[in-house]
Amino acid sequence: MNSRVTATGLLLLRTVAPDNKTGAASAFGYKQLFHEPFMGGGIWTSLAVPLVIRMGGGPVFFICLAFLVFWFAVWRIFFYIRPLANE
User: Fold this and answer.
1) Is the pLDDT of residue 44 over 60?
2) Distance set, CA 40 to CA 3, 6, 7, 32, 66 (Å)
3) Which of 4, 58, 59, 80 shows its CA 20 to 30 Å from the CA of 69?
4) Quick one: how far is CA 30 from the chain centroid?
């Protein structure tokens, strides 16, 4: 199922930064390369219902929770901006 979220995001980027001087469109494009195949209507979307039917809701919930913790750890390690210490 496609709800045109990617197209809406790109349209919003063109509205806010029409000259593309911010680099946000490039960052959005690179993010989509990793996001779309897994979460945006690809692998996970096609596997979610069969996994719930086969394994039940509890195990699938914990699989989702494990992925959430993993991606939070990746964000925390590589992208978190530490606040400056007050001296």
Assistant:
1) yes
2) 10, 9, 13, 9, 18
3) 4
4) 11
